[in-house]
Amino acid sequence: MFHFDFCPYLELKALLADPTPLARKRFELLFIGYYGLDLAGLSQAFLQRYFQILFDGNVLSNGEPRFAPILSELYLIPRRQGGLALQLSFVSKLVAIHSEISPIYDQHVQTFFSEYDPGTSVGQPGRVAWFVDFLKRVSDSYAAWAQDERLTPILQRFKARDEKLALCHVNRLLDFLVWKVGNQKLL
Fold first, then answer.
1. In terms of residue numbers, what domain contains 165?
2. Number of domains within the chain
């Protein structure tokens, strides 16, 4: 793990707590670059609503992520070149910035867990249900791994890299590690 793998996230967490316009603008630019929103063909209307939802912070209901309503609302906003898309990865990141217990979803996490998005073949409700179930299984895996004494020294070394990492929930630390393994195709 390199600092550029996690330092932007730590800066995002600090910026999120600052409601000033300058901090919000810096947050948006950093978030867009770090999570690749600039590469997804998203419209300005999508980004505007996405960050409005993110900054409003109404992403949990009774402690559970509000994935389905957020996905449904954002789905209705066309991409730059037209067409609609469920932005599963970006919505997982929107929720995860507020709730470190909630895992992040992307192609690297899928690669790590050897599971793949069923796509449009199951329809929008089926795909959202698959997504929610997948993140629940990832979270359950993280909870089991956090109890595994073989992982403890790895997590301790990782936390020692930066004092702010030591404050992160174990699920976020595992997200970083899983992403890195999936991204580097180390399995």
1. 3-183
2. 1
